[in-house]
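queue> holo job accepted (magnesium ion)
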Amino acid sequence: MADTAEKTAASEAPQAHPFQAEVAKLLHLMVHSVYSDRDVFLRELISNGADALDKLRYEAIAHPELLVGGAALKITITPDKQAKTLTIADNGIGMGEAELVEYLGTIAKSGTQAFAEKIKDAQGGVQLIGQFGIGFYSGFIVATKVDVISRRAGAEDAFLWSSEGEGSFTIAPAGVASRGTAIVLHLKDDAAEFLEDWKIESVVRAYSDHIAHPIMLADSEAPRQINTANAIWARPKSEITAESHKEFFGHIAGIYSDPALTIHYRAEGRNEYTVLLYVPGEKPFDLYDPERRGRQKLYVKRVYIADDVELLPAYLRFVRGVIDSEDMPLNISREMLQNNPQVQAIRKAVTNKVLAELKKLSETDAPAFAKIWEVFGPVIKEGLYEDMERRDALFEVARFRSTKSDNITLKDYMAGLKENQTAIYYLTGEDAVKAAASPQLEGYRARDVEVLLLTDPVDSFWVRTALGFDGKPFKSVTQGTADLDLIKLKDEAKPAVADDAGTATLIAAMKQALGAKVQDVRSSKRLTDSACCLVNDSMMDRTLERLLSRQKDSGVAVSAPILEINAGHPLIAALSRTVTAKGVMAVEDAAQLLLDQAFIIEGEQVPDPAGYAKRMADVMAKVFG
Ligand code: ADP
Ligand code: MG
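queue> job finished
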């Protein structure tokens, strides 16, 4: 008996838990560095309350007993001027003891470090907090102490989570409590304004009006609703202001700036559903997460179902918003959703619609589209190798840099094809300016042939699998031989210099001097001004080899290049004469220097920098000595 009594006493006492180190750091920032935009805490806590109500409504589809005896789903804000507390309560899903420890003591998503940087150097950085999945901790911006009383729907026991934001929190049984969660903020002295009705109302109106559940203000008078509480997407298009879109987009994406594109429509026919999607105007922080998760929310008849159903392909993961089906069964299990034929039909139609809207924007408002492409083009281009079915549709929206333009479509490119041009030429690189200066482009420039400059990492991948466009294959200007003979030179007076016996002797000598460092040495068709350049004959061009060789498990190493030399260059001509007169030894250093130079132009490392410097010094000594 004594044993049991002791046990009970022990479990009644508050248990102290340390915060995960990341959380502790974050809290320190909240408490000590955030002085502006403090309002965001209210938005974040209301947003969590709304999520909790959505989750309960969803669970209650399969377990209606969870709702029994509870009042209508709502969020209640209660300011208490005597106690200097502000309470944000919801009668939603609630949290059990283990959930309190896990959800309010650790951080699920990565990216806190990124957030910490933003908050330090960006004005208004705290606005971003919702995006990082750490909104709850914003309570500590205005509170010296936060109490969370929570009872999980369907459970008997309630628990009290409490913390002063200094490294640890406690959890203790809380006796009886109503279903859901109440967050009690013990306000700092300088945050007393959040006890005033006008302040609370203005923050709710600014940030949370669109929350689809009632938000009640319970001051000394009878509680009254202070938001509009209807699903924005269900409203007629003409009645939704840009301001409400901005606010709803902020709620759904955690990005508090105007969306770059809004897509709102109702599909009728075999499947009926409403779509409200936004293309952000800026990069979400997790755009390049390896998970590549989309975050569109699926609703069925205004009931939130899930945000992890693939409603759009991964290459459109930056599109945020809601799809609300009128005819899907409410009681469908989450596991079944992905393979549900209705979901698949919706996915297909909405994907096509998003691409069509992007195309329309590119035609009606080119500058607005250009901004979207600038930010999301590299992601959209993932579709070029993942979504064969829509590759042509994607090619229609894709924009490219080239040797002649900063912004062209493939159609534009095709319109400028030269007589006898058999391919769409491209050069991959890691930097547009450097790529544009590549010697491999010279022969194309001399013939006024446009070359696409592909400088996003993703380009190296799609361009290998894309079969071509409009009947013309894609061809790298740094791979294989240049098939330029049939295309007319711009300046007929400056014909390419033909190889002679001297060139052949030089090539043989260079091969001997360079050995395994090169796959081959040959005379180039693509050079006009430079002495030499590197090309590849293998499956991959050098940019892709470099990209892959940096990835640990790719098993790809940068291969020995082919060194192409320009017979028309004075240096090559001089070397030809030298080798003919004096033999191989006389050009050994020069061969090595030419190869090293070619590496440098490629942005690659010279394999033997000390050797390179020594040879260079020897040559200069001869010239200046
Ligand atoms: P996020 O909302 O992005 O997940 P938060 O820091 O705002 O990040 O909240 C962390 C987690 O805590 C939530 O995902 C949720 O599981 C839990 N939580 C927070 N507030 C509530 C609440 N009012 N009711 C139920 N669970 C909550
Ligand atoms: Mg949240």
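queue> Residues 44, 47-48, 130, 135 surround magnesium ion (ligand 2) (CB under 6 Å).
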